[in-house]
Design goal:
Strand content: 15-25%
Radius of gyration: 24 Å
CATH superfamily of the largest domain: Aldehyde Dehydrogenase, Chain A, domain 1
Largest sheet: 7 strands, mixed
CATH architecture of the largest domain: 3-Layer(aba) Sandwich
């Protein structure tokens, strides 16, 4: 079956129509705005096209979420949790077509998308378990009142997700939002909207009220801005680049709406001379080459102690030449193409202008937006390639002398998302973990992420936290209630006859 025929077959299996559409109030709606063409990143040929959702559909989506949220909150918390468990099972039942569609549209290897779809099901299971366990507390205030708090949903939240992990990020955001009783409008990247629609269609078939989660297939300046500004939306969650995140935050701030921003990173992967170099080499490859480096937590700065710098880079070069690049639908493929032409051009330009010495994997497939795994050597930590998020399979290798220099180099960046250290010295490991500015930090590991653990960063990496119990707080507000049970009210002002 050729790729276009496979695409049509997968769309039919998942009840998505012939071309991408928005999902509003349980029904598919075609947009009326500018035409958007989706390119197969492996063949570089058009796969399909659709019209931008625009302002009108954004308005309808916000209204549908507002109305459905009231229905959702009329159910008991336990009943909402059971629906989420049903959704998890339904996702697993359609894991194969979901994984194939994600791989085809986003260019991600099928071996990765299968794992990500399973993790999306796990997200609904995890947060479904939390639905009836979120509660407030009783506070012993000195006045003698009974003072207690409630955790209440915000109402409607607007979520914007990126092209590098479309279905994974959709689940990451939707599950905690609905577990806490909110309605959702979500706008995936205009380049990868389809699996998010598929995910919500599956959820609705499993019992989620129609309209509780609405998907806008379209552009940020039109549909996205309209949703941010809509009166029903109480909070904005954005996952993507710092540049776009700033614009989203400014638009939200003008409407006095808070944000959670998950932005970029330039994470330091630190290797000391006493580390197990074979393990560190495998970790370095996973940190930057898996997913073609299209990850916000990618270990894009490899800091290696001088004594073992040359040895580790030789191992890394040998290893990257064995990684299998190819068709993302091939189970043997370990690295697929870059997801889109714009990102492909950005990476190629960054590598071409980096300076220093470029060590590149010997070959890439003849077609597709492929960037070979690449090591940049001979640069300083101040170099543009060491400070700018390349978002591709490109690592800047930098030597350091001692612990103090490693910490200083790791923190000498505008980002604060992730990092790692490889060492046999447990004391040093804890010192480094405490000193490096990062929301997530690994010791003798890399990219271990789970829905139960909080995730987020600081500075140009954004603010707020997703996943874990921290996400429950982001999607709720605390209400304080005071009850005066005294026979004579504790009010020391006023007159009554």
């Amino acid at each position: 079956m050729n790729r276009k025929s496979l695409f049509a077959d997968l769309m039919a299996q998942l009840s998505l129509g012939a071309a991408p559409q928005s999902l509003i109030g349980g029904a598919l709606h075609s947009g009326a705005g500018a035409e958007i063409t989706l390119i197969d990143p492996f063949t570089q040929e058009p796969l399909t096209s659709y019209a931008d959702a625009g302002v009108a559909l954004a308005t309808r989506a916000c209204e549908a979420a507002r109305d459905a949220q009231r229905v959702w909150m009329s159910r008991s918390a336990a009943a909402r949790g059971l629906v989420m468990q049903d959704i998890a099972r339904a996702i697993l039942g359609l894991a194969d077509p979901l994984s194939q569609l994600e791989s085809l549209v986003a260019g991600k290897p099928i071996r990765d998308t299968r794992v990500e779809v399973a993790k999306v099901a796990e997200m609904f299971t995890y947060y479904g378990g939390w639905a009836d366990k979120l509660h407030g507390e009783v506070i012993p205030v000195p006045s003698g009142h009974l003072n207690f708090t409630l955790r209440e949903p915000l109402g409607v939240v607007f979520q914007i997700t990126p092209w590098n992990a479309p279905i994974f990020t959709a689940g990451w955001q939707i599950a905690p939002a609905i577990a806490t009783g909110n309605g959702v409008v979500i706008k995936p990247s205009e380049l990868t909207p389809i699996t998010t629609v598929a995910l919500v269609r599956i959820a609705e078939a499993a019992g989620l009220p129609a309209g509780l989660v609405n998907v806008l297939a379209g552009l940020g300046p039109t549909a996205g801005t309209a949703a941010i500004e809509h009166a029903a939306v109480r909070k904005v969650i954005f996952v993507g680049s710092p540049e776009t995140g700033r614009r989203v935050a400014v638009t939200a701030a003008a409407a006095l709406k808070p944000c959670v921003l998950e932005l970029g990173g330039k994470s330091a992967n630190i290797v000391f001379a006493d580390a197990n170099l074979k393990h560190a080499c495998l970790g370095a490859q996973a940190a930057i080459f898996s997913g073609a480096g299209q990850s916000c937590v990618a270990g894009s700065r490899l800091l290696v102690q001088r004594e073992v710098h040359a040895e580790l880079l030789e191992m890394l070069t040998e290893g990257m030449n064995k990684i299998r690049l190819g068709d993302p639908l091939d189970p043997e493929t370990e690295i697929g193409p870059i997801s889109n032409a714009r990102q492909f051009s950005h990476i190629a330009q960054m590598v071409a202008s980096a300076g220093g010495t470029t060590v590149t994997r010997s070959s890439t497939p003849a077609t597709g937006y492929f960037i070979a795994p690449t090591i940049l050597r001979g640069l300083t930590n101040a170099a543009l390639a060491a400070q700018t998020e390349i978002f591709g399979p490109v690592v800047t290798a930098l030597p350091f002398a001692d612990e103090a220099e490693a910490i200083a180099m790791a923190n000498d960046t505008a980002f604060g998302l992730a990092g790692a250290v490889w060492t046999a010295d447990l004391g040093r490991a804890h010192r480094i973990a405490g000193a490096v500015r990062a929301g997530t930090f690994w010791i003798n590991s890399y990219k271990a992420i789970h829905v139960s653990s909080p995730f987020g960063g600081s500075l140009n990496s954004g603010f707020g936290r997703s996943s874990g119990t921290d996400a429950l707080m982001e999607y709720t507000a605390s209400k304080s209630i005071w009850l005066d049970a005294a026979t004579t009210p504790r009010i020391a002002f006023g007159y009554v006859s």
